[in-house]
């Protein structure tokens, strides 16, 4: 049996003495560990498998952690974690108390920056470069960014800056032609043109055509010469786009050939100014199922190592909220050709894959470009279409100004479908959908609603599509409750909540899936002789003023429950309304997330830890009835 090399690697220094044969054995062992672990924990498999040699080469050539390496998004950094002192802890990946699925500065000095949202690495690197200059330091700075992430506005802003400032930094473009789904956009087409040499072929054909065309004079002659110059430049310089932006372009090179990677990195390490090293990799490399289905294995739940299959749920299981959203939207769009769907690189994740197949001319994947996606929707809305922008709650944070300035200020009718709102579980602090109620509620004129179950989501989507102005529907990750979904689609009354159970000692005002936790809590409280009113608030904006005032006058103890931060959320809205109404003789306890970021754990653990489950509601109810909220 071959001796394990990985067992002896606890720091990048341990790999720097290895020869190429040993390094490539190490790459295999790392792949095996990643695949085995993710098959149990779930996680970002395909991207991490594609970046194993990159991680080894970068830590081999650069003097980390003094030299600074930033992983964009950070979902591809498992090999980096394993060789930077976290091999033994790797089995705790994404679990409560375990290591994070993304780089975290507090986890290791090798994790240079906290990442999770894409396309930040070039800006971070350029900030680090300016700091290095001011501090008169000499270390190297490397950013590793995927081709999907390169298409985002922020990456362009970072390039625009670093190409201008000319500080030394190396940007490694990890090009696998995939975002989560196949990559989209003109930059993506440009990059594959470089890789296939198609661009050079096209340019050659263009040149031939130009040179064979009728001789020209005057103005046209000047234009003609410019065209020839441009064509020649493009032919001899792959990556001319980056060169024109002030980078030295190197590549493309094979990102799985350690010898090529190491040699090239050693060379470019000493180049002055900003470098763009174009590296070509394969998503899912080394695990055949992930190579065949990189999209499914981008972020995967636990699966069988032998078959690549995810444990099947019984056919009677409820659908996910995402599925219900996708199916309902498709149905509504088939009846109304004004409806268009927009995703920012998450067609599968947002449940729009069937829409994309069925109504391709009304489906737009804008790439990782949430800001563009929202303003693009505003343009469509301006012309009478009904754009439904499906973006996870956490990623819509990127487009806050576009929501305010381009949509809400103009009162344009854009529907925001915020998937993964609330606790999202194992992806951790960067991905929680816990801010949207607060950030949206501050914007004038927007309607905000949250369904208690998957059936209510259907009706809310229809309500949103046929209500005026900007409207947001936020719903959680995961499965519905299995409620009846054969009810005819209807429009709900805007700003109206419903009483689900009546009582006189206490009222629980809940929003979204916590409505069911509130009902269960009320059941238990009844056994203790406590009579509870339970309200499904449905809307955060506008609130049901009449119902809330009437409730506050009837019962003098209120508990609000939401999966959002307390600052500025649903409970805050209730407090503000009661203050406006001059209702002060009342005890209120707000349940939600305090002034903290929520770390990775299962959603159930997160709910329990933040008191937003049945037990949390019961204990809040007991507290408030006996003495107050604390
Ligand atoms: C702002 C933002 N939007 C969406 C995502 C979700 N997301 C995570 S990875 C990814 C694809 C990234 O593609 P690429 O950079 O090419 O890396 P690859 O996975 O192909 O290695 C997306 C869309 C994100 N992390 N951040």
Mind explaining what this structure looks like?
- This protein has 26 helices and 17 strands.
- The chain is α/β, with parallel strands linked by helices and 630 residues long.
- It folds into four domains: 6-188 and 245-292, Thiamin diphosphate (ThDP)-binding fold, Pyr/PP domains (Rossmann fold); 198-237; 321-474, Thiamin diphosphate (ThDP)-binding fold, Pyr/PP domains (Rossmann fold, 3-Layer(aba) Sandwich), CATH 3.40.50.970; 498-623, 3-Layer(aba) Sandwich (Rossmann fold).
- Strands 7-6-8-9-11-10-15 form a seven-stranded mixed sheet, with helices on both faces. The chain has a five-stranded parallel sheet with strand order 1-2-3-5-4, sandwiched between helices. A five-stranded mixed sheet has the order 12-14-13-16-17, with helices on both faces.
- Helix 22 (514-527) crosses helix 26.
- The protein is globular.
- The model has no long low-confidence stretch (mean pLDDT 93).
- The site of thiamine diphosphate (TPP) has 23 residues, from helix 3 and helix 7.
- Thiamine diphosphate binds at residues 47, 50, 73, 75-76, 117-118, 146-149, 174, 176, 178-180, 283, 345-346, 368, 370, 395, 398.
Name the strands of the widest sheet in spatial order. 7-6-8-9-11-10-15
Major sheet, described briefly? 7 strands, mixed
Radius of gyration: 27 Å
Proportion in helices? 40-55%
Looking at the structure, the CATH topology of the largest domain is Rossmann fold
| Count of DSSP-assigned helices | 26
Number of strands: 17
CATH homologous superfamily assignment of the largest domain? Thiamin diphosphate (ThDP)-binding fold, Pyr/PP domains
Cα shape: globular
Secondary structure class reads alpha/beta
Briefly, what CATH class of the largest domain?
Alpha Beta
Hetero groups in this structure are: thiamine diphosphate
- What is the residue-averaged pLDDT? 93
Question: Do you know the CATH architecture of the largest domain?
Answer: 3-Layer(aba) Sandwich
Measured by DSSP, the beta-strand proportion falls in 5-15%
Q: How many domains make up the 3D coordinates?
A: 4
Stretches with pLDDT under 50, minimum 5 residues: none
Distance between the termini: 61 Å
